[in-house]
Amino acid sequence: MINLTHPFKPESFIFMKEFFTLHSFIYNVWVCILLFGVASNAINLTVFSKIGFRDSVTVALLFLSLSDLLSLVLSIPTVTMWFVTQHWPDHHWPFDKFLHIAFYWYSQVFYDFSSFISVFLGLMRCACVAKPLLFKSVFTINRTLIVLGVLLLVALSLRIPVLISFRFICALKPQTNSTWLFFLAAPNSRQTNAVLDIVNRNVVPWMALIISVACVTSIKTPPGCQISTMFSIADCSSWVDRQREGHFLPQTQLCSSAWYGEKCKTVQKSKR
Q: Where would I find the G-protein coupled receptors family 1 profile domain in this sequence (predicted)?
């Protein structure tokens, strides 16, 4: 095992000056974004928790808020370390300041999980548009929970190589003559991180983006129609419930996502 807590060397980056300029800007802004994200996701989590597991959409949004919140909370040690180092470089830490890396990689697990949930919500919207009458029977709460569990396992498996490439040891620090907890990484951790960066920061995000774009572009408006409104997934679910119960909308010209693949038609209010 080798210690990776050494500072950057000048030859580590080609654009060293530009890197540290951007570095100092990002970590100042990151603190504000982090605080706003924690507060907003805490509110979202409270709201969706009170709603409960009413339908598959609410379940997915609840897990999305929870995943975002965990990702941000686990990022706090990293943001704090870099912010303090940026403004007070001579600050004396009572522990190895690079211990934040352990929290950082777990925050990336939930970051990926949130990305996967967003793609899943896009697929749900596409399915609601394409097959509105089958939506609630296909996307049940149990199936949604299973899909979310699989997505969490996928996000975790993508980070397992780097999670097992480091460990913590207790060692004597000569400067203070005391025992400290140090972060140590495996000899091949640099190569592992390089490969994972290609996969997790390039391949996976682009695949998620392509799937999301494909879902959006697959929703085509029937020719000759004008969109009066665009239903959300929750609206689509309510529309399906009204259809099953025999309650139809008043007479109006409809050309919305709930009528995907059909011509615009006049819907008469049915008699009970």
A: 40-164
User: Do residues 69 and 185 share a domain?
Assistant: yes
Q: Which residues of 254-264 are buried (b: 16+ CB within 10 A; e: fewer)?
A: bbbbbbbeeeb
CATH number for the domain spanning 109: value is 1.20.1070.10
- For the ranges 111-120, 122-131, 166-175, 188-197, the lowest mean pLDDT is seen at 166-175
- pLDDT surpassing 70 at residue 43: yes
Q: Residue 41 burial by CB count (10 A; 0-12/13-18/19+): exposed, middle or buried?
A: buried
pLDDT tens digits along 231-252: 455 555 554 455 555 544 443 3
DSSP tag of 93: P
- Please tell me whether residues 231 and 197 are part of one structural domain: no
Domain end, chosen from 189, 217, 245, is at: 217
Q: Is residue 54 domain-shared with residue 158, that is, in the same domain?
A: yes
Helix (H, G, I), strand (E, B) or coil at 8: coil
